[in-house]
């Protein structure tokens, strides 16, 4: 396996981890907004003395789970660190090879 392919694999893995971090962050944001909306809806029902049996429109997508999103965020952080270390190691090996040949 060449140093270039190791370096490229590290970069691709880092990019995937970065995309995973963005996705997990968006899910956390969506979950926190949904929680705020639920709290506001409950307050509005109390203000107008609405019954809890009122029909509520079903959400189009499944509600975001903040706990799963936080775990995914941490996993992607570890993935990013591991791939950054792979890139650093490939760079160090390449530097060593250049030093040996000169």
From TrEMBL:
Protein name: Flagellar hook protein FlgE
Organism from which the protein derives: Pseudoalteromonas marina
């Amino acid at each position: 396996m060449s140093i270039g392919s190791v370096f490229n694999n590290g970069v691709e893995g880092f990019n995937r981890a970065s995309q995973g971090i963005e996705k997990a962050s968006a899910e956390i944001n969506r979950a926190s907004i949904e929680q705020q909306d639920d709290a506001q809806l409950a307050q509005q029902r109390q203000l107008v003395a609405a019954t809890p049996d009122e029909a509520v429109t079903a959400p189009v997508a499944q509600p975001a789970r903040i706990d799963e999103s936080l775990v995914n965020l941490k996993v992607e952080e570890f993935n990013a660190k591991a791939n950054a270390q792979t890139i650093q190691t490939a760079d160090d090996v390449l530097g060593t090879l250049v030093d040996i040949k000169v």
